Amino acid sequence: MRPDRLNPLFAETASLKGVGPGLQRPLEKLGLTRVRDLIYHLPDRFVQRRAVANLDEASIGEQIVVALTPREYRAGGSARAPFRVQAEDAAGNICSLTYFGRNAGWARKQLPLGEARWIAGRLDQFGQTLQIVHPDHVAEQGGAALGTLCEPIYPLSDGLTQGRIAALVTQALGHVTDLPEWIEPGLFDRMKWPAWREALLEAHQGEHKAARDRLAYDELLANSLALMLVKNANRARIGTPLQGDGRLRAKLSLPFALTGAQARSIAEIEGDLAQTAPMLRLLQGDVGSGKTVVALEAMLVAVEAGAQAALLAPTEILARQHHATLTRMVAGTGVTIALFTGRDKGRARESILMGLIDGSIDICVGTHAIFQEAVAYKNLAFVVIDEQHRFGVGQRLMLTQKGKRTPHCLAMTATPIPRTLTLAQYGEMDVSRLDEMPPGRQPIDTRVVAVERMGDVIGALARHLEAGQQAYWVCPMVRESETDDIAAAEARFAELQVRFSGDVVLVHGQLRPEIKDAAMERFARGEAKLLVATTVIEVGVDVPNATLMVIEQAERFGLAQLHQLRGRVGRGAEKSTCLLLRGDTLSETARERLALMRETQDGFLLAEEDLRLRGGGELLGTRQSGDAPFRIASLEQIAELLPIAHDDARLLIERDGGLTGERGEAARLLLYLFERDYGVQLLRGG
Ligand code: ADP
Ligand code: MG
Fold it and tell me: Could you give the residue range(s) of every CATH 2.40.50.140 domain in the chain?
């Protein structure tokens, strides 16, 4: 149960004064549903203003506060022309306060002629005249003081204004009380960080690095602590030690020799499986690095030891593909592999359920349906989860908590993430890395093409399809729910469908799963030549005949994401091409990122570079790409503070009494504050 003292922070945003149904939606869109979310809704930046006595003291482009006296109104000649208020400063300079749109009435009211006002805004020049476009604030002299000279700028959504959100944040901060310190005292002193409440207040008031760092550290520490608790709890569990004799693996007739990385990973897994404590291991390997065969060898260890293994895929299509691949690989070994999905009905379903309970099925491949209540195993001792990133820690826990004995767990991911982030996302696991590609891979010819050349691109696509090959066309989608992006994808689909007379299918996140699967299957069978998709194809689909990929607005994707998408092609014998369409205005960093895609196919390198390139200024701009793992901590802060948080969490648990004692109690508050309380629950043996 959440400690009582935190309850006010978890009250609904709707309980705040002035939050009606109209505000609820825009707040929800920003994820601000509770008071807690508001206090952690930190400004993107601050406008720093300088108070000047007259405009001679200010420079063009500067944010200023100055006293001006309106002298004359100038309505525009046409409806489109702006409304101008000519105003004079103390030195006799004239400045035009410029309003676009239908703001004339409002401006007249705010700025009566002959009465001095404090004006806050950015000083610009228009031709020969000085101007301030849409002043941020207009205040009466002698009346309410003009806010502060340093004003936070918050991330907004439609229907919210800076003033509105600032007022709500202030209200929310009113609910913040002091909390006991959870940061290790030595570190706290060394960093000269403010206490929690102080840090929150400061972070909303100005660019206080120490405050921002402290809050970021809190988030990282909560994460590390939770993962560590999971790891510890897992260590205390009992699994089935599995020792294979190699008899089945010897019968495998693989058409290739294992790479060094594969052999090493298999050995690491074998070592874990032989232990009583259940394995919790992550197999990280780029698309095409050969994770499947590693999973198979590991599952065969379990089968050799007389147990069953299960492989969990995130989608039904992937489950089918895995089932087909594995079945082919084990031909002649006598190993039985079944496919079990939520769609199985009647007799087929019954017979699989029987096989699982009587042990005649050795390996079960399927979607999460394989963990439903009704599914019982004779002796399930090992679970492989493919494409790990689709599952959160919570789900990971659910899966491994079935039964008296905890199955060993191997998670596989193709998402190349930098080492520091691996620690953040999978800190509870041991890691094996497939950092070596099987030999003989053809590089994918990657080109960056300006979007003006769309005509050429479609021409190339036409030739490609006429030659009997297939292709992907990827449209950007920042979040699964972005309706504009869906509309754009649908429009592109309609256009391409006309052009290619119906040989086209569409897949995006808002389609029903059956429809999505049906489209994917048409494409996989080669009936559809072109697949138009948003990023849903990211996860492991294998269609070797698809050798061309076009990615629209490539600059909107993260490098890691682009890399994963590109990994869908280059799977067959034919040479593959990836065309990255880019918009006409690109930032320097965006340019550099696309160039990197052209130059390297190494996912881990791309991930590290992505982190480096985004570490600086572009971070805020790319937060939308949805792959930033934390809300508060920036990539820079993660790189700097996460290793410290990780060590600190370990020390707290292993040396300083865990969640008991004074600091332990404080740490418990932290876990609830960041909703990592599954860590606490585990402690209770839940
Ligand atoms: P992923 O890591 O993306 O799951 P897969 O397991 O699907 O990769 O393997 C990609 C392809 O590489 C498959 O066709 C597989 O048979 C092949 N492959 C795997 N290991 C090797 C190897 N050591 N040498 C040659 N080809 C391999
Ligand atoms: Mg795979």
Answer: 46-153
